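Quick start: what a row looks like.
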Amino acid sequence: MLYLDYMNIGINASFLRKPDTGIGQVTIHFLQALAKLEGKGGFSRYQFFLYCEEDPHMTLPNNFHIRAFLPAVYRRDDLIRRIWWERYALPRHVASDGCESFISLYQSATVCPRSVRHSMVVHDMIPRIMPEYLNNMRKRAYQFFVERGIQRSDALIAISSKTEKDIIRLLGENPKRISVAHIDVDPLFRQEISDAMSLKTMKKYHLRPGYVYCGGGLEMRKNIDGLLRAYKLFLEQSKRDSKTKPNFLVISGRLMPQLSPIVTDVESLVRKLDITPYVKILGHVPQEFLPALYKNASLFIYPSKYEGFGMPVLEAMCVGTPIAISKTSSLPEVAADAAVYFYPEHERDMASVMRRVLGDKKIREELSRRGKARSKLFSWNSFVKRILDGAVK
């Protein structure tokens, strides 16, 4: 149906079906913020068409229209379906709904008709920087189509200045058609965490406050193997100092040892390093428990070698957890002076940073204060307005 008195804007909302992923979080909170701004009259002259692979069952204003579709026969959620959905089916639906503008909330294989202004959000350039991720023909084919989609879009929005530089360096894109819009995190992390929720979380995972926490995934680029070796050095240093009681290390993330070496087999490595009594592996932690998990940590450590943004770092900052993070990719852009930094390849450096922060309460208090203050600079409303400004030019 065409809405001739309005501007029709399509949005790829496919990742609503994967709310636990970073792109899923961006999709959810982009749409929630957009709906709230629309409710205030900010975008009332637009009709929004949300294209999904599953019905998200969201309550949205009347000018939001859900379009959920899948192939009649092939229902398996894999790269074959993704290429079909993004590259072939989606452009047809966008044209059928008379969209004048289209927003891809992640880098995708979609190439829109020339009559449709296409704005694409680019989160990272992981496959280009780490080709180990392209370990089969389907992944290489999808990456080829994604790069075509990036090159054929009318405007690119990078979620960090680092990602913007990577797009220019690796794909040779014109800087004039790229803008930067920082994302935010789930508003849950900005709410006060009750003592009851802290107690519930500690009881659920059999923890005591004061641990070192690392979350955000177990992919090889997250460098959990480097963290575990650094933590072993930290333990050895702590044991030599009778005044220092070693802090337990808590790690969360989906355990998928079958995907090793793309995903770190944490359990096997902990046993190999002989640090099992000091490491607690939680597996996947539902979103509702994450704020309390951050809050009760003495330190959040993030040793990632490459990030397009680094959402877990901002989550920790919102809660007020002191952070120690890699001095690489986009992470310094997110944290600025609210973190202590180390080089992720230098395990002794990482161990030394852990020891210094955990041994100095004043450092932890200052990092907590700075993190909370800096976290206020990030906002979903700002992100939405930047995206919409580009979409309706």
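That is the whole record. The first strand starts at residue 7 and ends at 12. The longest helix spans residues 22-39.
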